[in-house]
Design goal:
Layout: H1 10-15, H2 19-28, H3 40-47, H4 50-58, H5 62-73, H6 80-88, H7 99-118, E1 122-123, E2 130-131, H8 133-139, H9 155-158, H10 164-173, H11 182-194, H12 196-204, H13 208-217, E3 223-225, H14 232-239, E4 244-245, E5 250-252, H15 255-261, E6 279-282, H16 285-309, H17 325-335, H18 339-351, E7 355-357, E8 365-367, H19 369-375, H20 379-390, H21 422-435, E9 440-442, H22 444-454, H23 469-484, E10 487-488, E11 491-492, H24 494-501, H25 504-511, E12 523-525, E13 529-532, H26 538-547, E14 549-552, E15 557-560, H27 563-571, H28 576-586, H29 593-605, E16 610-612, E17 616-619, H30 623-631, E18 641-644, E19 647-650, H31 654-663, E20 669-670, H32 705-723, E21 725-727, E22 734-736, H33 748-761, E23 765-770, E24 776-787, E25 790-795, E26 800-805, E27 809-814
Parallel strand pairs: 16-20
Antiparallel strand pairs: 1-2, 3-5, 4-5, 6-9, 7-8, 10-11, 12-13, 13-15, 14-15, 16-17, 17-19, 18-19, 21-22, 23-24, 23-27, 24-25, 25-26
């Protein structure tokens, strides 16, 4: 096929392709595979639907899109030479179009055209290039949808509703011979605008103000508003057809005239080559790796602190889903970060499956069982887990605090944060980082220009957050990569390169030597503080976080011991002796005497008062203490009364009474119904097992080679069945299923005899078949065996061996000798 006759339709052009070319089309446009088309005709029809064409146009780079836009304003069909001239100009623009740009366009155009052909947006030979009709409609100019090239309609299109008399006036004023034939009049005006010499002579007579009007319209938009009494310059242009009426108040600069003023160019600036991503700074690769590793360690510490913060049950969930503004502020304060950064850490932990909802009636966020497994991993493997969860995530923390299309606030962990383009942008940004030499920090502006060139139509979003979502996603990626330790000092780290190219284990091996080793000691100081000069081992860190409060973080963490923190440790079941032994075992400095005194003093008073349920009661062996408590004005709200010399009763519940007395400076302890002191430890609240949120796909997944091969075979087989030539059993002549959709009709005896003969000779036949659900279909089969009322045959339509019941075959016809034509 395809040796002499050019294709007349897109289906014919696709039918002439090889299997590899069809597979390339399906790989580039996977939406065409859902479901697999029955034949080439259905594939071509689906490739021309509006939704599919829009999706294909969105995946074109800027020059391929400029090529399609040029074809949209070119004659249909357009020779290759005309397309090239629309992109390079006619060379008569006084040097405005540089030779190097023209050479670059000439060199890049075959590749762009090959891309459009591969994606079935353009078909036909080079002398008859056709843009698919749907793409032409999407890219062609109209008052409602101006052309992206800024060109208006042709003279013929703009004058379609104009009266013959008005056309004669324009021809006469422009110095052309009047004609009563509208077609000839339009042709004469078009010829004038496309003749550079005559057009230059006409414009030489134009007023300067008229040329200024043309300058404002030439590069678009080509439409302008006029008053019922236009100014002399506008009237001069309108009388000569340089401005043609679209409505009573709107005029347009016709395409032919605009192309003359543009020196034949469809675009002001063709962009055949992608912008180069330049370097903002050159850094020492080892310094980059160390900075990234330091930030990776900070990321791990922050996520661990977040899990600890929500360990006993995190904040409640809003009715609409997500965190409230107050809870996000509270979390940001606890983590000592800004609210946008807190939203990022919360969303990252959620994407990694470390946080989820607990599913209780009072639903709250809490760590998942997987978080305990994550905490048991080595630091480098904890980091790779977070990084690999971040890369494919479609949730976008940068949107938090904004509004959706309906004006509703977007909250962290809310349901409206998924943006399917995020993973693609994220990986593309990192790929551009990886193309630079190690230690090179790219210039963000050139990076954004490159992304806009690669996907110029992907900027807008239907969600209402702006017209350049892709650029915003790229900027958020830069910030998040630095927070996570993917980059360091603006450059891609070696561990991140390894993660992108070789996998998690290699990345962990790169990161491990750069992370600090956890310590088993602290430095106690006389001012009731302890300094951890580095990361602490988990058991030490957990115990110390109960015994002391974190005062400051950084390269070293400072813990402060207070009466409240010591009481917290005592409430957790520790005795004073246990605390003294713990500090002596883990301090590289002697335990300061003030700290020992603090522990002993709090322990001596701890539990001296006992709180139980009456509503609540207070008992103490020292009557003087109870007398002091009753006399204290701050206890008035507790409504205490004496039941016995050593017992007071209160209207408050035990928990409130306990907290109130602690605020008054006492150190009470809660007791059970049996009179034993209750030990209170921070409860570890966990959700049921949860899976991480599934990323929202941007579109159909790219099929693998196995699926592509099977799909191409099925389409080819269906096409064979749809276009095969067969003999009409009634007339003995050839006919085609494409010209007659009726099922063949033969008697049962004729059907049996024909399929038996076909099985013996190994030939294919055409049958009509009605399945058990009553659905009728036409098939081309090659019978292999006929027995027991069934025919076992190779079904060319389905490209597989099937069994057909003889009584469901409506009829059979032999194929013509040139069967598959």
């Amino acid at each position: 096929m395809g040796t002499t006759t050019p294709p007349r339709t897109l289906a014919e052009a696709l039918r002439a392709r090889g299997d590899e070319s069809l597979a390339g089309l399906l790989r580039a446009r996977p939406d065409l595979l859902n479901p697999v088309p029955n034949d080439i005709t259905q594939l071509a029809t689906r490739a021309g639907t509006r939704a599919s064409v829009v999706r294909a146009l969105e995946h074109l780079d800027r020059f391929a899109l400029q090529t399609a836009e040029a074809l949209a304003v070119a004659p249909d069909p357009a020779p290759y030479g005309i397309l090239l001239s629309l992109l390079t100009g006619d060379g008569l623009d006084d040097g405005e179009q540089r030779d190097d740009v023209g050479a670059a366009v000439t060199a890049a155009l075959p590749g762009a055209l090959a891309t459009l052909r591969e994606q079935a947006l353009v078909w036909g030979e080079d002398e008859r290039l056709r843009l698919v009709r749907t793409a032409r409609e999407l890219l062609a100019p109209s008052p409602q949808h101006p052309s992206p090239t800024g060109l208006g309609p042709t003279v013929a299109e703009a004058t379609a509703g104009m009266s013959p008399g008005r056309l004669q006036e324009i021809l006469t004023t422009a110095g052309l011979h009047a004609t009563h034939d509208p077609v000839s009049a339009v042709a004469a005006l078009s010829a004038l605008f496309t003749d550079r010499t005559r057009m230059a002579e006409l414009l030489d007579t134009a007023p300067v103000e008229a040329l200024s009007v043309l300058d404002r319209l030439v590069w678009g938009p080509p439409y302008g508003e006029v008053t019922p009494n236009p100014t002399p310059p506008v009237k001069w242009l309108r009388d000569r057809g340089l401005l043609l009426p679209v409505s009573t108040r709107t005029v347009v600069l016709p395409r032919e005239a605009a192309l003359h003023l543009r020196a034949g160019r469809a675009h002001r600036v063709p962009e055949p080559a992608p912008p180069v991503v330049t370097a903002a700074a050159e850094r020492d690769p080892q310094a980059v790796d160390r900075a990234a590793a330091g930030q990776a360690f900070t990321a791990l510490s922050t996520v661990e602190e977040l899990l600890k913060l929500w360990n006993g049950g995190g904040p409640a969930i809003l009715r609409a889903g997500g965190l409230s503004v107050r809870e996000l502020k509270r979390t940001a304060t606890a983590l000592d970060v800004t609210e946008p950064i807190a939203a990022f850490w919360v969303e990252l932990a959620y994407a990694a499956g470390l946080l989820a909802t607990d599913g209780e009636s009072d639903e709250r966020y809490a760590p998942t069982p997987a978080s305990d497994e994550w905490l048991d991993l080595s630091a480098q493997h904890r980091w790779t887990h977070l990084a690999t969860a971040w890369l494919p995530a479609t949730r976008v923390p940068g949107l938090v605090g904004g509004q959706d299309a309906k004006g509703r606030a977007l909250s962290a962990l809310g349901p409206e944060l998924d943006r399917s383009a995020a993973p693609d942008v994220r990986r593309r940004v990192l790929a551009l980082f990886a193309e630079l030499p190690p230690g090179t920090a790219p210039d963000p502006e050139t990076l954004l220009r490159r992304l806009r060139w690669e996907r110029p139509l992907r900027g807008s979003s239907p969600s209402g957050e702006g017209t350049d979502l892709r650029s915003r996603l790229a900027l958020w990626t830069l910030n998040e990569a630095e927070l996570l330790g993917i980059t360091g000092r603006g450059a891609l780290s070696s561990q991140a390169r390894a993660l992108l190219e070789e996998g998690e284990e290699t990345a962990a091996a790169f990161l491990a030597p750069l992370l600090p080793e956890p310590l088993d000691h602290v430095l106690l100081q006389a001012d009731l503080t302890a300094v951890a000069p580095g990361p602490l081992e988990r058991p030490l860190a957990e115990t110390l976080s109960v015994l002391a409060d974190v005062e400051s973080k950084g390269g070293a963490t400072v813990y402060r011991f207070t009466p409240g923190s010591v009481r917290r440790a005592l409430d957790a079941g520790q005795a004073a002796a246990d605390l003294h032994a713990f500090l002596a075992a883990h301090s590289r400095t002697p335990v300061p005497q003030p700290l020992s005194y603090l522990i002993d003093d709090v322990a001596r008073r701890h539990g001296h008062l006992r709180i139980g349920a009456a509503s609540a009661y207070v008992r103490c062996d020292d009557e003087a203490v109870l007398n002091e408590l009753l006399a204290d004005r701050r206890s008035t709200g507790l409504r205490l009364r004496r039941l016995a010399p050593t017992v007071l009763a209160s209207q408050a519940d035990p928990g409130s009474l306990l907290e109130a007395l602690r605020e008054m400076g006492y150190a009470p302890a809660a007791e059970s119904a049996e009179g034993d002191v209750l030990i209170t430890r921070a409860g570890a609240r966990r959700t049921p097992p949860r899976t991480p949120p599934t990323p929202v796909p941007e579109g159909p997944p790219v099929p693998d080679d196995t699926l592509l091969g099977a799909a191409v075979r099925a389409i080819r087989a269906g096409d064979t069945a749809a276009t095969v030539i067969r003999k009409d059993p009634a007339e003995g002549g050839p006919s085609s299923t494409t010209s007659s959709g009726s099922l063949p009709r033969t008697t049962s005896a004729e059907t049996l005899a024909t399929v038996q003969a076909a099985a013996m000779t190994g030939t294919a036949v055409w049958i009509g078949y009605v399945n058990a659900e009553g659905a009728a279909s036409q098939r081309v089969i090659a019978p292999v065996r006929v027995e027991g009322g069934f025919v076992t045959a190779y079904d060319h339509t389905a490209d597989e061996v099937r069994t057909f019941a003889l009584h469901r075959i409506t009829g059979v016809a032999e194929l013509a000798e040139d069967g598959k034509g």
